[in-house]
Amino acid sequence: MYAVVETGGKQYRVEQGSTIEVERVAEPGSEISLRPLLLVDGEAVMATPDDLAGVSVTAVVIDEHRGPKIRGFTYKSKSNQRRRWGHRQTLATLEVTDIRKD
What we know:
mainly beta
């Protein structure tokens, strides 16, 4: 059984016991609930809001760390306008503890 969950504007395919890296959602050690978009259990596929009303996906925040540096550069030709910038996103490692279907 696996589920497709949404967090931080992105979708992730998760199974029980799997780990994923998402944008920071909570402090390390806390338990969170993820919003399911799809649940596949063998041949049964649940995708409508009525079907997913009884589905819950819980995860534990294991770690928090910084992602890779993203470097950007913008310029306008013929006017000597240049700008360099960088960004490092704070990421969280989640371990999916339970996928429940009520």
